[in-house]
């Protein structure tokens, strides 16, 4: 029995350091795997962030101000709109095309503005509707064979309603 107890005691003395070494090795492997996974995603995010280019500089096309008589129910000739705006365009080619055909652009806009109702433009919703109409009236090609005009936004620079 004594030999059996000594054998168990000897196995325990060896078993505890072996288990300790195995636990330490398992923790080290797990820690290394977590570290690799964290570095891999950080490197991927850094590479993705490096690939993302800053947005292109906006292209604006400022137009001279327009002064037009407005339509109103009482036919008052003193109802006048003085408005200035700048168009935000998607690219330089569109800006050049609009500049080349500026008389056509201004004519379309003057016709649109002269059809506006004074009461409708007095409220915010009427101004937003005017922006939509400006985008629509400038959308058709200026000359046959050209692509349609794309206007990203219309920014008011002056707006006086008398």
Automatic annotation (TrEMBL):
Keyword Ribonucleoprotein annotated: no
Compartment annotation: Cell inner membrane; Cell membrane
Any single GO BP term: bacterial-type flagellum-dependent swarming motility
PROSITE patterns to which the protein is assigned, alphabetical: PROKAR_LIPOPROTEIN
Organism: Duffyella gerundensis
GO cellular component annotations of the record: bacterial-type flagellum basal body; plasma membrane
Family stated for the protein in its record: Belongs to the FliL family.
Membrane topology classification: Single-pass membrane protein
InterPro entries: FliL
Function: Controls the rotational direction of flagella during chemotaxis.
Keywords in alphabetical order: Cell inner membrane, Cell membrane, Cell projection, Chemotaxis, Cilium, Flagellar rotation, Flagellum, Membrane, Transmembrane, Transmembrane helix
UniProt xrefs under PANTHER family: FLAGELLAR PROTEIN FLIL (PTHR35091)
Protein name: Flagellar protein FliL
Matches recorded under Pfam families: FliL (PF03748)
């Amino acid at each position: 029995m004594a030999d059996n107890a000594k054998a168990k005691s000897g196995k325990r003395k060896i078993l505890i350091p072996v288990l300790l070494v195995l636990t330490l090795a398992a923790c080290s492997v797990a820690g290394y795997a977590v570290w690799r996974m964290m570095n891999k995603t950080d490197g991927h995010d850094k590479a993705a962030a490096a690939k993302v280019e800053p947005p292109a500089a906006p292209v604006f096309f400022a137009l001279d101000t327009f002064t037009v008589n407005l339509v109103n129910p009482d036919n008052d000739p003193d109802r006048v709109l003085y408005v200035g705006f700048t168009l935000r365009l998607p690219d330089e080619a569109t800006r050049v095309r609009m500049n080349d055909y500026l008389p056509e652009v201004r004519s379309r806009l003057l016709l649109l503005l002269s059809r506006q109702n004074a009461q409708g433009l007095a409220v915010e919703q009427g101004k937003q509707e005017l922006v939509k109409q400006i985008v629509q009236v400038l959308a058709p090609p200026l000359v046959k064979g050209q692509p349609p005009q794309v206007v990203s936004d219309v920014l008011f620079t002056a707006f006086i309603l008398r």
